[in-house]
Every structure is written in structure tokens, then in C-alpha cells.
Amino acid sequence: MLAYDHFDPVGPLRSLYECDDVLNFVRRCLGLDELHRYADPFGALNVSIMRDGDVLDWHFDMTDFVVSIALQSAESGGDFENAANIRGNDHNDQVVAAVLRGDAPERVRVEPMTPGTLMLFNGRRSMHRVTPIKGATPRYVALLAYDTKPGTDSTDALKLSRYGRLAPRRHE
Fold it and tell me: Bridge partners of 119?
């Protein structure tokens, strides 16, 4: 995983993510009055790098929306599976359990992530995963994260598990 703080400040992906026109475009696509960049210093923008044998199990995101941009496909596998909008104000435990058991195939869409694919989805309400990667060619996907509330950040536990570190604390 290539974290936000490791991107060149004037490089193309970081410039794209930090562009107000892009933020407003995503906001308008979603039909929202307000949208903010994710406040996670590592996860606001990252590139997921998955190699042979890697898999990303079913999960929900801590941010409302993600724009995924496929940069490179694996030789095989690496499909994005999405059970869209199954979690609302309640956690919808029965539907979540059915998807996890494989008993709700009608709820799951499979999206091949071929280079150039741009997908916008609600990661907080949509359970999703990436199928196992097979072959020598890694899968690269840029992930641009947004939230409806300003200042939304991930937990320290998630930062440690995903990036192996925490951001330095600011002393005020």
C-alpha cells in the first residue's frame, strides 16, 4: 500500500486528489451539497498494491465514498465484489451474514478492474472485497477517499494494520 504522505506533492495522483474541481465533480456526481477529502494522513489517497496470493476480505470502509481508478490488472483475479448499500442506519446483520455465507449472490456485483476503470462507490454502506490475485503481475488501484463530514479520519488500529505506523501527534 502506497500511503498519501508518500506521494510527490506535485505528482499527478496527488494533484488530482487535491484538485477542487475534482472534489466538486465527485460531489455533483453523488448529488451532495457538501463533500470533504478524507482526513486520514495515510488513507486519504493511496495505491493498493496486491500481489500473487493477496486477497482483501469483505469489509466496510470508514469513509463514505471512494473513487477507485484501476492502474494495472493482475494476470488473474483481483475482481472487485460489491454488495451495494446493504448497511443503513441499522447494521442489517442478516443481509451481511447472508453475503458472508455466500447465500445472497443476487446482492453481489462483480466489477472487473481493468486499467482505466473509474468507479465511485459508497464504501461505508457497501460491503466489498477483492478476489485473490493470481500470477506475477501485481494489481494496482488508486483509491481517493471522501466523506460527507469534515475531519473524518480512520482509527489508529486501522492505520497500524494497514500502514504499520501512526502519524506524529501535533502538540498544541
Answer: 68
Inside any domain, residue 8? yes
pLDDT at 167: 83
Residue range of the domain that includes 57: 4-147
Alpha-carbon distance 75 to 61, whole Å? 26
CATH number at residue 109: 2.60.120.620
| Per-residue pLDDT tens digits for 100-110 | 999 999 999 99
Which cell goes with 105? Answer: 449472490
Query: Is position 60 within any domain?
Result: yes
Burial 44-57 (b: 16+ CB within 10 A, else e): bbbbbebebebebe
Evaluate whether 164 touches 4 at the Cβ level (below 8 Å): no
109-111 and 36-37 beta bridge pairing: unpaired
The model's pLDDT over 62-97, given as tens digits with 9 standing for 90+, comes to 999 999 999 999 999 999 999 999 998 888 899 999
Nearest to 64 by CA among 134, 152, 136: 152
The number of folded domains in the chain is: 1
